[in-house]
Structures
1.
Amino acid sequence: MPKSYSTIHGLEFYFYPTINTRQALLAFEDDYHLGIDFNQQGNRNVNIWASSNGDNWDLIDADSGGEGIGEISVPLNTWSHIAYVRYGDQWMLFINGQKDVDVIQNGSIVNRFENLNFGRWGENKVPKFQGGINSFMITKGEAKYINDFDVQEYIENENVVSYYKFNSGEGGIVYDHSGNQN
């Protein structure tokens, strides 16, 4: 799996939350990198985080009053699609194809080599995810979405860096299905 995402332009996946508490959806091994969590601020919402310096959430944060707080309430026990996209200085979060967070912020994600965790925030600072995660894709190059869209299954293209189906392996093992050997 690639461990540096300073040039990332998109993350997307499906998730199936089963409990209504704050939970990590994805984050790196250490805090202050890039992250997505569920139910931090609001009612079953999704929130985004980004750091350029590795010391604080200087680009985007979802603490109280932060610009990374989502507003769309995600239903429990239902698969929902999430897309976290960067288009120039515009950072966006889409829930089931509907734009939920839209932040204009200059800067790049801190460039550190560390593991990306699914359903876990580094050093367990946020409770682990309870439910399901599937079809996780990382893209680079041109942003895949900039406006509301109809959610589609995985479509192969040259901008896909990694694609994890979560249909094989066990425990901490997932396999890349993009053909890029990540």
Note: The chain has a mean pLDDT of 80.
2.
Amino acid sequence: MLKKLTSIATSNDPLMNWAKAIIILLALIPVIIFMSNATTSQDWSWFKTGFDERPNRIIIYHDGQKVELRAGQPGFNGLAEAIRASLAGGVAQQSNTGLSDQSRQEAYIRYTTVEAFFDRPVKLHAFFYTDHPTQMLFPITGRHSDWPIVFLGNDGEYRVNAPVLKTIEPIREQLTAMRIIE
């Protein structure tokens, strides 16, 4: 068997050369795709789902009211786990959407929005660049709430190209259980 493979590999037959070229090309395509995504996302684990971080502070904005939750307060553990579960479900696509100052103010004042803060930079794996945010904003009602989008940011600023998650239903379910939304 080894002798036969060696003779094929060293053959000068033009037909065998084409076959070898095709095999090499087919072997390189997955490597090229992986490296292209790893380079653009700056994440060697871009293909992974899962998210194990929990926020250390959560703010719920609802109809002009602001409720801040920290560890140990009622509702914090359930909502923190819902945020983690939504992020762990993975990213469906990139949105090419940003959050303007006006949209953010409306999210805080007019609509229901959940803002999560982490005590250190975290990584959300995706096939595009998501940086290492310390805060995330989830629109639940109002502008941008028609898809499960999460805006990622640092130091009070949110970046464009927000990821669209596969689901934010765990967050919606927890907010319903907390009687914030129906």
Note: The first helix runs from residue 2 to 9.
